[in-house]
Amino acid sequence: MSKLSSKLEVLKLTYQKPLEWFRRFRCFVGSIVVSILFIIGIVFSIFIYNLPDIENTSFEKLKELTEKKVKSKLVNKNNYFRWTPLRKVNRDYLYAIVMAEDAKFFTHKGINYDALVDAMAKNYKSDTYSYGASTITQQVAKNIYLSNNKTIYRKLQEFFITKRLEKKFTKNQILEIYFNLAEFGPDIYGIRAASYRIFKKSPMKINAAEGAFLSLLLPSPRRYYYSIVQNHNITNKQKKKIKRVLNDMRFMEFISYKQYEKYLNYNYF
């Protein structure tokens, strides 16, 4: 009996030491994980704290920020830029730009996740950063509050600011900010300036075809202004985009089929 007890004691001592080391290791790893989570929590709190205070920003204040941003970029301070409310813009002009830039603008909540996944897949295949998926609200967030740097940190800032903008403001308010902030060419900011500089008429007189044409400039305003507006060079890809925008507008019944057919052969120059 004593021999059996001795053997059991030996076995107990044999396994007790590894178990003790395992418990210590588990406590050590646990403390590291807790510390990391604590640091992440602090960093995230600082990140959120440093974001713009959208919740306490009125629409008038946002307009002031937008105008200040645009005027700081203008070389010619006497240019055509002047704040233009949505009520002074032709509806077809508005919808043409929306259909081109962010067709789901009125249904998503700031981020178009389907377009985002599609863009990521295309960028992965091409091994470049050629395809973007920024919604109109994201563009507003970036152009008012952020830089053009393509970093993960900046994209995270853009994500949270976008969500805050969507929560605070109506779709029409966000759209008004966007249309007055958008760049259409060198020293051409806002839909009023684009209308007068390119078509020599007010935003109320711009039709769907002209709106679709102006949407071609938005991805790269300065480059496309020179190639399309000054050199009258519209590529087949750009022609297809105009047709797609007009077809989407016809499908949504923003324009009639008769208008659609007329605009397909529109003379822009």
UniProtKB/TrEMBL annotation:
Q: Which UniProt keywords apply?
A: Cell inner membrane, Cell membrane, Cell shape, Cell wall biogenesis/degradation, Glycosyltransferase, Membrane, Peptidoglycan synthesis, Transferase, Transmembrane, Transmembrane helix
Listed under GO biological process in this entry are: cell wall organization; peptidoglycan biosynthetic process; regulation of cell shape
One Gene Ontology MF term = pentosyltransferase activity
TM helices/strands, residue ranges: 27-49
Organism's domain of life?
A: Bacteria
Q: Where is the Glycosyl transferase family domain?
A: 74-249
Q: Which Pfam families match?
A: Transgly
Cellular component terms (Gene Ontology):
membrane; peptidoglycan-based cell wall
Protein's name in the database: Glycosyl transferase family 51 domain-containing protein
What is the species listed in this Swiss-Prot or TrEMBL entry?
Answer: Sulfurimonas lithotrophica
UniProt lineage = Bacteria, Pseudomonadati, Campylobacterota, Epsilonproteobacteria, Campylobacterales
